[in-house]
Amino acid sequence: MNKQVKPTESELEILGILWERGASTVREVHEILEQSKEAGYTTTLKLMQIMHEKGLLKRDASAKTHIYEASVSQERTQQQLLNKMIDTVFNGSATQLVMQALGHHRSSPEELDRIRQYLNEMEKKQS
Amino acid sequence: MNKQVKPTESELEILGILWERGASTVREVHEILEQSKEAGYTTTLKLMQIMHEKGLLKRDASAKTHIYEASVSQERTQQQLLNKMIDTVFNGSATQLVMQALGHHRSSPEELDRIRQYLNEMEKKQS
DNA sequence: CCTGTTCTACGAATATCTTCGTAAACAAAT
DNA sequence: ATTTGTTTACGAAGATATTCGTAGAACAGG
């Protein structure tokens, strides 16, 4: 089991963009980042270089303008962070986290139904 | 709207202990911290002093041995961290987070029922 | 070929977090 | 009164994260 590096706050923002867009150049990532955050171009570049060293990103450096891509999956990272959070902030109770999350975010009836279905499937599997 | 300070990793551990125990001395907190972590006493002390400056803790300094207490609620802090997480890692979808959390943590049928009830209540309220 | 633009690499400054040594205040025990 | 132990305060070292300036390579257009 390759234990995964824990991304920092800024690194998570970049990962988020790459998960959504797929492989991208530094410029592209930077442009999106800029919309929500003050940052110089070389700052974004440096961050992505470091992430590459850490193994969080892969890159294709064959052309002059390198292309970066997330090398950790969104799901695995989500799980990693959820586990930590449940552990330190929610007294180890996933249920508590779930209810807290539902309570403060307007979910549409359709979404609620999806969750119900999900619950049912889980119950079947257990037995 | 008092925007809340974001606790660091170590600060969260201390908050967790204070939420559980209620008002405590540095020594008491440190003793518990030690069980899961290598740390010197003055490290814990310093951390708690900083947290006090930041407004994360209140303290009663009337006696020689000060008594500390969390001054941010567990629920509010949970919400703050959840929001950030949903935003940066779950594409803004609380539903996605909920399903991910349920999928990887064995929940008992009783817990699943509680969640179902919760879902129903929410749906009523929306109207 | 020259010029201006875009890109990477590098290194260093800055900021933030974490850890701990030391000293002074205080209290309890001898 | 002196010693011993516990506590706070302070400051600084060490570790990690973030930001950016500068230089040089690569490229595009004239």
From TrEMBL, chains A, B:
TM region(s), chain numbering: none
GO molecular function: DNA binding
Gene3D superfamilies the UniProt entry points to: Penicillinase repressor domain, Winged helix-like DNA-binding domain superfamily/Winged helix DNA-binding domain
UniProt cross-references to Pfam families, sorted A to Z: Penicillinase_R
GO biological process terms, semicolon-separated: negative regulation of DNA-templated transcription
Keywords from the UniProt entry: DNA-binding, Transcription, Transcription regulation
InterPro entries reported in the protein's UniProt record: BlaI_family, WH-like_DNA-bd_sf, WH_DNA-bd_sf
Entry's family note: Belongs to the BlaI transcriptional regulatory family.
Record protein name field: MarR family transcriptional regulator
